[in-house]
Amino acid sequence: MIFTLYYMYSTIIQWWRLGCLRNKLSGTLNSHNALMVCAGSTISDSKHKRCLENLLFHNEDRIGCTVVPKQRVDLSQWLLFPKDLNYFPIFISDANVALRSPKIYMLLRARLDDYRRHESEIIQVENFGELIAWRAQENFEMILKTDLNNLTKFVHCFFDHSIDINHELNLLHIETIDIEGNPSRIKYNLRYPLEYRIKYSLAPVHWRKFTNDLKSLYLKLSDNLCNKLEHPTITIESTPKTVPVSEVKPIKKSLEATKHHHKTVRKESKNKLEVSTIDSRRPKSNERKAKLEKTKHKTASVKRNEETEPPPAVRKQKPPKLAKCANSLISSKTPVTETNGVTINSKPPNVLVYADSVVARDNVKNVLHTILNNHKYMVYDFPVSGSQQLWLNSTSLIVVCGNVAPEISTQFLEYLVSGGKLLCLCSDLLYSVLHIFSTAEVREHELVRFSYENWKRVKMMHHVFCYQASPAKRQFSKDSDQSNSSRGSSPVAPRMPSAVEIQHGGKKYVVQVQVLGAEETWHTPSLLLAAVKDTKGVAIFSQVHLEIDPTQYQDDESKFSALNDSNTARLEILRHLLSQHLSLDCNSIVDIGYSPAYFLGIHDVKQELLTQCDAIKDGRLVNDKITVHFLGKEMEPEPATATYLPVLIHACPSNFSTVQYFEALKTTEVGRLVIYAEVLTSSQLLLARKLRHGFTVIVKQQTQGVGRSNNQWLCPVGCAMFSLQLHVPMQSTLGRSLPLVQHLVMVAIVAAIKRKAGYEDIDLGLKWPNDLYANRNIKIGGLMISTSVFSDVAVVNIGCGINLDNLLPTTCVNELIRLSNVEKKTELPPIAYEEFFAIIFNEIESVYNLVQGGDLDLLFELYYKYWLHSGSEVMVTDKDGVASMASVIGIDEFGFLKVRLKDGSLTSVQPDGNSFDILKGLIVPKRF
């Protein structure tokens, strides 16, 4: 009786759990997203870059979630199962499963190459649906047609515990997909005995035979088909059907429109593709105009209301097409633009580092960060592959350390002769530029004394590459060279030429050579200057290790002591070379010290957060990067550091006007609670935990700012920097399209400035996906976003930096206002620091509330109003370097860039993982 009751109880619980899971899947899955269930602590899919939409469950190492967009699988890359399953190595029983509508396609991935001893329950997948296709690559994959009931049962089994599918294949991954095309049919010749197909003996050798049999069948596909198995990494969606431009809309508002979207239509003329701006996608309605008017702040004047009137229905002039990738050489100077006679950097100038080892690269980066103006230059790794156009005209210097591959040497030489600047530290690139130099085995990696300018007899580590013949090594002897003459202390030292002729690209160039420094024993050049005549190309070749910190020689007491004594001279020499010969700004700006921060806002609201937020315990907000300590009136703060931030609750900062800020702030939540700090490593660190919707951090200066894809983020004083936390319900309009949040914030920034009376014509625009540009080609801001999902809410942390009152590294908003005053003879005041944050937060909350109220069209209209890419042509380059031109159509419902290829097909390109320079017409795989 007890066992019967227990069985009944277990059955009821099982039935209840299945019902809950089925309801969750039914309410979550739709035509846009996909269910993904993985074994492991993280969700990773290197071939298909997608966004996590909703976390459904997490049980030990089982993770279930929805992702967007849904993967579309081309079945032409797959094989049909044989009609007689005895010809298949895996045992599959004859099952006839009745399926209900709607049908769902399920992709299963199981472990193949990695042999694992069987310890899990085995289930036969054919009992859960109809077998559609299979393939065997690194893993074994199969596609089933199923329904919601069978999908729920299968996911429940996998969620509950580890399972093996047919033939003891350890299941790794379940995903719902869409399919297209038909699987290929092959001839199955060999029959497999039943005992062979049901279970192998538990030994790796038998497993290898099984996997070889399976892969041999799969290899029967033609070579042409096999070559198609990998998709370009930048492609999210690629369908063979042609869809007209007018149908590429981020959101379908009606069933009729949705049906029309999927109709097959005639292809448009590829050479006459025209994409207009807002109105071809979403005409602004009178109803939406009324909504916008209702959101105007109470202090807005009648004139400001007039500023928000929509633009004319049709633009009179189509924006110019973006330049295609040019084959001609471009000047290596930082790209500049001229505004009212003032020359402005278009982008922060880059310093690229190429090294033959990770240690050498880190050494170079560390010393550059010490010497260069840290508010002006962006230091990146050199992109060893990809188009040269991505870096050629935005690079101020390339630092080369160590051996260089021949194809890279060609790029460096091209950069040099077209006006670029090189700093080569103990590199064999010396011989590509100055072929008269030969390798000698003199003082290889030894401590030597050398002199340069006012620095005499400095002890440094000298490299193997020397301009010196070796009396001990005949293969390096110059005795037979009649051009040599005795010069210096060495009887065989060759004569130093003042100029060398080189050839590149079918042209001849004269390189003028000058010895800047030499070591004292052999008088071999330690520092060389090579200048390309009639161009601005300059290269410095150092045969001493100026990049190495003395601490790397701590195990060698004699070398460490000598190098440590010369360390100041090393840094001074390197600074002199960079500033005097390579024209870089070495006025290093010293960051101000850390100090206590301030908690701003209404007292009751502050106390509510401090007492009710789960992330704050005993007045401390702690994560693995920083501890934030909230302090009352009588509490004395400890000294602030990079990892400890005392925050004063009852005090106000002296250099941030809280009166001006809160008078201009008209929001309900966004920006109402603020931590204001003079200096932080990164404002994003303070939002690592779930706090409150609208919680904000404003920081005057950051020491370790990070941008998208972990790129360096320059944070000079005068840059308006903030981090904002938004809590977005997963079932809301934005919750179903989380990537659009970044577009919403950037739209709000532009709209906030342009809605100020008199500031409508300040030329600001948006570069996809999240950069702010002035005059169409000057970058003055950007943002990064990180998202965490907590059950039914997504916590979105937005980090943003806008050049407000700083001319470095490019220009700033207030400089644009000043130039506009000069041009139009107006007297518009600059935007105050505190007001700038307030009007942006006002706009963010206003647009956010409208969108969450269901008016997603408003966001797209504003985005297209301000973006820079209508009618643009870009070159899409896949990871194999195959390039094709495409026309920009718009953005899809997830914020990804929608382009039409020349064959008429549409594809979406996502922002993360790509180096994207749309203003130059380039999209290529991420290299920096």
Automatic annotation (TrEMBL):
Record Gene3D superfamilies: Bira Bifunctional Protein, Domain 2
GO molecular function: biotin--[biotin carboxyl-carrier protein] ligase activity
Pfam families in the record: BPL_C, BPL_LplA_LipB
Coiled-coil zones: none
Keyword set includes Glycoprotein: no
PROSITE patterns reported for this sequence: BPL_LPL_CATALYTIC
GO cellular component, one term: cytoplasm
Region (Disordered): 253-322, 475-495
Positions with biased composition (Basic and acidic residues): 266-293
Assigned protein family: Belongs to the biotin--protein ligase family.
Protein's name according to its UniProt entry: BPL/LPL catalytic domain-containing protein
